[in-house]
Amino acid sequence: MQWEVVVGLEVHAQLSTRSKMFSAASTAYGAAPNTQACAVDIALPGVLPVANRGAVERAIKFGLAVGGAINRRSVFARKNYFYPDLPKGYQISQYEIPVVSRGSVVIQVGEREKTIRLTRAHLEEDAGKSLHEDFHGMTGIDLNRAGTPLLEIVSEPEMRGSAEAVAYAKALHSLVRYLDICDGNMQEGSFRCDANVSVRPLGSDQLGTRCEIKNLNSFRFLERAIEFEAARQIAVLEDGGVIRQETRLYDSDKDETRSMRSKEEAHDYRYFPDPDLLPLQISDAWVAEVYATLPELPQAKRERFVAEFGLSAYDAGVLTASREMADYFEAVVKALGGEPKLCANWVMGDLSGILNKEGLAIGESRIGSARLAGLLRRIVDGTISGKIAKEVFEAMWGGVGEADAIIDAKGLRQISDASEIENILDQIIAANPSQVAEYRAGKDKLFGFFVGQAMKATKGKANPAQVNEILKRKLAG
Ligand code: ADP
Ligand code: MG
């Protein structure tokens, strides 16, 4: 039997406001425990929550970017459950009427595109943190995170397998950073996913029973957790068993998912409108104001890069994954006055390679866009070959200086003088009579041998195009 894996994701994006969803306490990460939790966050009696305008604005921005409906009136609701790090005994969330309904995101899997629909996006507050380490068998509670604003983005169950789920999570991650509404820091938990996974016989139009895997905070874990969970469910079903709807956790050390608890139903939470908060009213004027601040979005940029620069969909996708990378690439093309394919290759190749190796963001690059353009200009005008350029790039990265200075100091200028190249080739031809005879007798691949000899003789500095052309002529006899 063939199985189909079905995934729906709930993504929690921490909104980048300075203060919390319903209080003025700071949201800065990494402060000493319980120093950023005020009376509202720790639920002292008599306090009242006040909704954070900046958080609402960010939710509107997101809703507009995904083409969703911005509900002009939405309602905050209490979601009741007991947990030691939830001092109120309920979480303020949105239930029946969220701030954003519907919308969609286009994902890219290789060269293929697919549209994933969103169900909703709603505002809520985060809980505190229970710390089980270093307390001699006791648990510590840090309420700094209590009340931090979250946008929970819920997709329809439209991903088929882990690759689409990861592509979707990456597309959302890229989008919230473009919009500058979330810093996207996954290690710090600012962007995390719950994956709902089910399987069904291929061709069936009914959904199987889902399990929900909580709090996946890397794309790799998301992929692994879905893979493991789908295989587990298939094994259970093929064995004649049934899947129970439950909440599971992913253990990255063991690379497996384990049951945490049977899944609560919505009615278990006894949702009701929070009497402390008025319904959230959003005016048309406010929506229009936010609309005017939208930047060019990843999908539009991707399409423009294909149309304007003639890049492949794949290259355009890589270059527009972050706004910083896209801006850097465009700045190089502008400084160089063209040659987008060459620029794309260098930004995605040598530059990204060294940034990854050193764990740097593109904004921290030791070679800015103007300096890289300075190097590429010398490839374009034939001063150096692409191969020598790699050597110059490394020296530039090492802080030696600008491309031109390095080329001069190291004597790397390409030999493009035709008579000089002819001389060198004449010597090589004279020194290798048997290879010349074999080549002329039809052994075409010996051509590479002569090119290699020419490069060796010139320490890689001979202009490759000229070597090819002159060599062809001379070998033809
Ligand atoms: P809950 O809070 O109970 O998890 P939500 O409505 O917030 O409910 O989220 C449900 C998520 O589960 C959605 O992303 C939805 O697409 C997904 N989902 C629902 N049914 C299935 C299913 N059978 N298989 C996979 N995903 C599913
Ligand atoms: Mg859920």
What would your notes on this structure say?
Helices cover 39% and strands 20% of the residues. It has 477 residues and is an alpha+beta fold. Strands 1, 2, 6, 7, 8, 11, 12, 13, 14 and 15 form a ten-stranded mixed sheet that branches. The mean pLDDT is 94. The longest helix has 20 residues, at 219-238. It has three domains: 3-290, no CATH class; 298-409, no CATH class; 418-475, Arc Repressor Mutant, subunit A (Orthogonal Bundle). The protein contains 15 helices and 17 strands. A hairpin with an 8-residue loop joins strand 9 and strand 10 (140-142). Magnesium ion is lined by residues 10, 194, 212.
Radius of gyration: 29 Å
Task: Kindly state the percentage of residues in helix.
Answer: 25-40%
Q: Average pLDDT across residues?
A: 94
Low-confidence stretches: none
How many DSSP E strands?
17
Number of domains: 3
Q: What's the main sheet like?
A: 10 strands, mixed
Structural class by secondary-structure content: alpha+beta
Strand content: 15-25%
CA-CA gap between termini:
66 Å
Global shape: elongated
